[in-house]
Each structure stands twice: as C-alpha cells, then as structure tokens.
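Suppose a colleague, Dr. K., hands you the sequence of a protein chain of 475 amino acids and asks what its three-dimensional shape might be. Before reaching for any lab equipment, you can write down a predicted structure in token form. Begin with the sequence itself:
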Amino acid sequence: MRGKFPRKKAKPVPWARAVGKGPKFGVVLEIKAFLKLAIPLAIAQVAQFAVSFVDTIMMGHLGTASLAAGGLASTTFQMALTVITGFVMSVGVLAAEAYGADKKHRLTGLARQGLWLSLLLAIPFMLLLTQMTTVLTFLQQPATVVALAQRYYSGIAFGVLPALGFAMLRGYLSAFSLANVVTGVVAIGTAFNIACNYVLGFGKFGFPRLELLGLGIGSSLSLWLMLLLFSVYVFRHPEVSQYQFWHDWQYPNSKILRRLATVGAPISLTLILELGMFTTLAFMAGSLGTEVLAAHQISFQVIALIFMVPIGMSQAVTTRVGLWFGQGDIWGARRAGLVATSAVAIFLGTSAIALFIFRPLLIALFIDAQDASSAEVIMIAMNLLLIAAVAQVPDGIQRVAMSALYGLQDTKVPVVLSAIAFWGIGITSGYVLCFLVGWGAVGLWIGQYTGSAVAGAMFIGRFYSLTHRRFSTIR
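The predicted structure, expressed as tokens, is then:
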C-alpha cells in the first residue's frame, strides 16, 4: 500500500466536500485548502523558533559561560527532540490517510497509540538527559560547560513527554484541517515560556534565581501548558470529540505501534541524515577559525528563521497529500504536491530578494558593525547569506517534496536518497570546495546547498514517478 494508490476511490469525506470533490477539485481550491493549513503551521514554527532565540538572549545575560553551556545544551536538545519527533509524525501521516479514506474509526486508535508511543520514546530520552554529564565529559567538553549544561538538561527533561504529545496531536488535528488552533496554543505557550524563563532564570517576584535550571524548567512548564490546551481543545471540539479520544482507556496495541514505528522510523532517520550534514559542516567551519564559525552561526540563525515557513508548509503538504492518498485520488495528490512546491518556491524567491537587500541589517542584529574587529566576520557572513539567498529555493523545495512523499507513506526510499544527497554529495562537495579548492566557508555552504538541491530533484522525481506510475495503470 505504501506509495501506491488504492484501485478504488474511497467515498469523499466531509473535508473534501467542504472545498470540492474529486477531479472537480481545482487548483485554486487546493491552494486555499493548502494555505488554510500551511499559514497557521508556519506561524507556529516561527513562534517556537522565537522561544529558542529569546532563550539564547537570556542565557547571554547570565554570563559568557552560561551562554556557551546553555547554547550547547539547547542546540543538542532541540536536534535530538526533532529526530525522535519523526516517530510521532507517523500519527499525522496515517490519520490523514484514514480521514481521506473515510475510515474514521481508525483515528481514535491512532491518537491513543500515538500517546503510548510518545511515552515509550520519552522515558529513555528523559533518562539520557539526566546523565548528560557523562556524555559531555566523554566528548571532552570543559568541566565548567558540563556542569552548567547539565543544569539546563535537568530542567528541560520534564518537557520531553509534552513536546512529543504536542507534536503528535498537531499532526492528528491537521488531518481534520484544524491547524488554526496550533497558532493560538503556540502563541500562549511562547508568552508563558518567556515569562517563566525570566522569573525562574533571574529570580524575580520572590522566586529563587535558578539560571539555566530555571530556563529549562520554564520551557518544560510551557510545553505542559501547550499540551493541556491542545487536550482541552480535542476534548471539546464537536467534530474531534466524537471519536472519544479521551473517554476510554486503551492498552498498548502492538500492531498499531508497529505500524507507527514502521512509518516513523525512516522519517527520523532522514532527519538524522539532514541534521547530521549541517552539524558536520558546522564543525568543519569551526576548524577554520573563530571568525568563520561566528559568521557561520550568524548566517545559520538567519536562514533557520526563514526556513520555519517551509517547515510549516511541509507539514501541511503531508496532510493534503495524505488525504488524497486515502481517497485514492491520483490527481488530487499530485496537485497537492504541485501547489506546495510552487508556494514554497514563491515564498523563498521573495524572501531571497529581501535577504539580499537587508543582509547588512540582519548581520547587525548579532554583531556590532561599527567595531573594526568584526569586519572579517561581517564580510564572511555577507558572502554566506548571498549564497543562501540564491540557493534557499531548492532547499525549501526538497523539504516540501520529501514531506509530499510522506503523505504517500513512502518513507523508506527517501532515506536512501537523503544519504546519497546529504552525505555522498553535500558533505563531500563541501569538504572538497572548502579544504582542497580553498574556498573556505563559502565552499562549505555551496556544498550543503548542492546536497539539498540534489535531494530536492530526487524527491520530486520520486513523487512524480509514484503518481505517474499509478496513473498509467488506470488510464
């Protein structure tokens, strides 16, 4: 079934009826349906990134040592959380298919087992976070950094379960096209997080000054709040509540859990390959000197903020393609993929122009442009952002195209394609251009975007092949 369309079309579901039916469902209506999902999901991604940005600023006010240790701890936590979140993303993939196929009786089981999967993933991850002192010491990090980082890990460990539960419910509700609530919940959680971090981190209003431990606890509390708000919404929403998600207890179901893991594990592995490429290139940049590493980090932060929008779009296209996949509608799935790739290309093309124009202002947010000692960092960052402005369009397309494949439940082949593109081409070409050709950080960035562009081309080819193949058999 994975990557292949059912021979018989399922009965159109309420969501499809709300905006059009089957082959009559035009491009304009698909655009509206896509944007209805993509805009709130993108806003939510930007808001969540803003929390990390504010956390970094607060860490800086705690001192240089806290900034170094907290930045290390926060970055590694977010990367690890992103990887294991890939497992629970399978709930959204399968829920979209079930909703599109009008097999809604599956939705309750998927959500309940998704919570069990979140718990099974959270327990070992939480235990690992409490023992990061051993890990960081093994990696030969300075003793001061290890001690401070462990305080942050100890506080954020309690937020793992709600973070996974939130990600699971986000995908689940997207199948109902109920993404607007995500924006509201994340906005409330973001404001609460900033307030908690300020109070607990700096000891305001009579609370003890917990510094990095307080920042970790504040982030955990905000994640629990967001999960609570999401749960209340699921319980009270008239359409979602009819599936009695919270009404009855259900023990772990090995069959459903196995299915979730089968779909989710390759997604996580693909994320490991992609994030691994960026991490490896960051270490390569560090070997070129402090100025290069600083320029790399500044440029990466700017691009990461912009890229939150394509990530939101990628979540939306998984749902849209999954809905049509469930109905067995070949044209609907292909159209959803085309609309999403076009939308991300238009957005990133527009942002590329803005990025090219406002590069100096963006860099000035991170570093004093009037300081003569910053001249080299600024020059390198200007060049890196120029490369990003040109190359971010294919990078965004590869993320959306990969997510479109997830909507077809084609998750295993993208792992192989990612390994070839990100590691076989991205890292290899980056290393050659940086160290052998002598282009330095510019070579690293050209390499990473070359890998992303190749990945995008292969993902699009795979998506076209799957949809065209099925169309050929029924034509």
